[in-house]
Design brief:
Elements (H helix, E strand, L loop, with lengths): L8 H13 L4 H24 L5 H4 L7 H37 L4 H5 L2 H21 L14 H28 L2 H19 L20 E4 L4 E6 L1 H11 L1 E5 L6 E2 L4 E7 L8 H14 E4 L10 H14 L6 H18 L7 E4 L5 E5 L4 H15 L4 H17 L3 H15 L7 H19 L19
Parallel strand pairs: 3-8
Antiparallel strand pairs: 1-5, 2-4, 2-6, 3-5, 7-8
Helix pairs in contact: 2-6, 4-6, 4-7, 6-7, 8-11, 8-12, 9-10, 11-12, 11-13, 12-13, 12-14, 13-15, 14-15, 14-16, 15-16
Protein name: DUF2254 domain-containing protein
Keywords: Membrane, Transmembrane, Transmembrane helix
Pfam family, one: DUF2254
C-alpha cells in the first residue's frame, strides 16, 4: 500500500500500440497503400532513367516486350491473390484451433503475431503492386509503347520474396500453435507488463498509509458495461486535486463493470467543506473519462490477464473432451514462472498523492494472494483426481516458497498447500506418500530448514518436520 507511479504519455502510447498490435489489418493496410504508391512511382522513375541505364545494369532488368510484361504481372497478381486466400484460411484455422483447444482469450495473442501480419502484408502488397504497374504497360505502337523495366523487375523480386515468405510462414504456423510457444508468449507479455507497471522491493519512497474510507461517500457510477481496460492515473489525480476530493476507485483493471454499478467513491478531504452536488457531477464525469471500459481485457495494464489465459489453458486441458494433463502441467509451470517474477514486486492497492503529498486517489490492484488463488483454485478443483496435476501444484508451491519474502507470501502459499492436501487422501498409498513428501518440502522451504535429499533411500528431507 504505497504511493504508485503516475501514468505518463508513454502509457498512452503503450495502450495505442497494443490496440494496433492486436489487430490483423493495420500492417497489411499500410502495405497496400505503400504498394499503390510504389506502383505509381516506379513506372515514373522508369520513364526518367530507362534510357540512361548502362548496359551492364539494363542486362539484369526485365527485357521482354509489352505482352510479356502483361503476362508476368498478370501471373504474379493471380498467384498472389490465391496464396493470400490460402494464408487467410490457414490463419483462421489456427485461430479456431486456439479457441477450441486452448482458450478464446488467446485469439488476441495470435492476431498480434507479427509474422502473420507481415506475411499478409507482403502478399497483399505484391498483388496490389502488380495490378498498379499493369495499368502502365502499353503495347509498342510507334513512340507510345512503354514497358517499365524497373517496375516489372521489382514485381518479379516481390513474387520471389512472397514464395520464400510462404515457406517461412508455414513453418512459423506449425511452431506457433504448439502449446509451449503459446504459453511462452503469454508469459513474456505478462512479465513485461509487470516490469513496466509494478515497483520492485524495496521501494525507495516511504510507504504512504491508506486513508480511512468516509462513512457516507459520493458514488460514481459506470455509464457502460464491459471490462475496465485502462486507468488514467494522471487524469484521476488532476480531477481529485482540482475538486479537493479523494477518489477511491472500486474496481481494479480487468474487472467486469456493469452500467449503473459503482466504479468509484469520492469524498472531500476537508470535512469542513463537503463536496457540492455540482462538484460531484463534474468530478464524476472526469473520473468516468479516466476509466476506459472496453469489450475485452488487454495486457496493457491488467496484471492478472496473462495468468487468466494460462489458467484457461490448464482448465481446458483438464476437460473430459480434451483430457491432456501434460498440457495442464505446462500451463502451471508457465504460471509459476510469472508468479515467481511477481514475488519481487509490490502488489495490492496503492495511492496517488498531489504535489503537497496529500493522498488524492486510491487505486486497487490484485494482491499476490488473489493471483495465486487465480492460478491454483480451478486447476485444483478440476484436477483433484489426477496425481500428475496435484504433483505439479505441490511443486509450484515449493518453488514459490523458496522465493517468498513477506508474510503475505507465506500465508498465501500455506493456505493453498492446505487446500491441495485436502485432496491427497482420495488417492492410493504410493501417491499419498509422494504428495505428502512434496507437502513437507513446501513447509520446509517456507521455514528455510530443509536441505535436498542426498540418499536415494531417504525420501524425506531431514529437518522438515511434518
Amino acid at each position: 500500500m504505497t504511493s504508485g507511479p503516475i501514468s505518463t504519455a508513454l502509457d498512452r502510447r503503450h495502450v495505442l500500440a497494443e490496440a494496433l498490435r492486436s489487430r490483423l489489418w493495420p500492417i497489411p493496410a499500410a502495405a497496400v497503400l505503400l504498394a499503390v504508391l510504389a506502383g505509381i512511382g516506379l513506372p515514373e522513375l522508369d520513364t526518367a532513367i530507362d534510357h540512361r541505364l548502362p548496359p551492364a545494369v539494363a542486362g539484369y532488368l526485365f527485357g521482354g516486350g509489352a505482352d510479356a510484361a502483361r503476362e508476368v504481372l498478370s501471373a504474379i497478381a493471380a498467384s498472389l491473390i490465391t496464396v493470400t486466400s490460402l494464408t487467410f484460411s490457414l490463419t483462421l484455422v489456427t485461430l479456431q484451433l486456439a479457441s477450441s483447444q486452448y482458450s478464446p482469450r488467446l485469439l488476441r495473442t495470435f492476431a498480434a503475431d507479427r509474422v502473420v501480419q507481415r506475411t499478409l502484408a507482403l502478399f497483399l502488397g505484391t498483388f496490389v503492386y502488380a495490378l498498379t504497374v499493369l495499368r502502365t504497360v502499353r503495347s509498342d505502337s510507334g513512340s507510345t509503347g512503354f514497358v517499365p523495366q524497373l517496375a516489372v523487375t521489382a514485381a518479379y523480386l516481390l513474387a520471389v520474396a512472397s514464395v520464400i515468405a510462404l515457406v517461412l510462414f508455414l513453418g512459423h504456423l506449425v511452431r506457433q500453435i504448439r502449446v509451449e510457444t503459446v504459453l511462452e508468449q503469454v508469459r513474456a507479455d505478462t512479465c513485461a507488463t509487470a516490469a513496466r507497471l509494478l515497483p520492485t522491493f524495496p521501494q525507495n519512497s516511504s510507504p504512504v498509509p491508506m486513508p480511512e474510507p468516509a462513512p457516507d461517500p459520493h458514488i460514481i457510477e459506470a455509464t457502460s458495461s464491459g471490462f475496465l481496460v485502462e486507468l488514467d492515473e494522471r487524469g484521476l489525480l488532476d480531477a481529485a486535486a482540482q475538486c479537493g476530493a479523494l477518489v477511491w476507485v472500486e474496481r481494479p483493471v480487468g474487472s467486469p463493470v456493469l452500467a449503473g454499478a459503482p466504479v468509484a467513491f469520492a469524498w472531500s478531504t476537508d470535512p469542513r467543506q463537503p463536496l457540492t452536488e455540482q462538484t460531484v457531477d463534474a468530478l464524476g464525469e472526469q473520473v468516468r473519462g479516466a476509466l476506459r471500459i472496453g469489450s475485452e481485457r488487454t495486457a496493457v495494464q491488467d496484471i492478472g490477464y496473462g495468468l487468466r489465459q494460462m489458467t484457461d489453458v490448464v482448465v481446458r486441458a483438464l476437460s473430459p473432451g480434451i483430457n491432456d494433463p501434460t498440457t495442464a502441467v505446462h500451463g502451471l509451470v508457465a504460471g509459476t514462472a510469472v508468479l515467481t517474477e511477481l514475488l519481487d514486486r509490490r502488489l495490492g492497492p496503492y495511492t496517488l498523492c498531489d504535489e503537497h503529498d496529500r493522498v488524492r486517489v486510491v487505486v486497487p490492484r490484485p494482491t499476490f494472494t488473489e493471483l495465486l488463488d487465480l492460478v491454483c483454485t480451478q486447476p485444483r478443483l478440476y484436477g483433484a483426481d489426477d496425481p500428475m496435476l496435484l504433483d505439479a501444484l505441490m511443486s509450484m508451491l515449493r518453488e514459490l516458497a523458496w522465493k517468498a519474502t513477506t508474510g503475505e507470501h507465506h500465508a498465501a502459499i500455506l493456505d493453498q498447500l492446505l487446500r491441495v492436501q485436502e485432496h491427497v487422501t482420495d488417492h492410493d498409498a504410493v501417491t499419498r506418500s509422494r504428495l505428502e513428501h512434496l507437502a513437507r518440502q513446501v513447509r520446509g522451504a517456507l521455514d528455510r530448514h530443509w536441505t535436498p535429499t542426498t540418499k536415494s533411500d531417504d525420501p524425506i528431507p531431514p529437518g522438515t518436520g511434518s
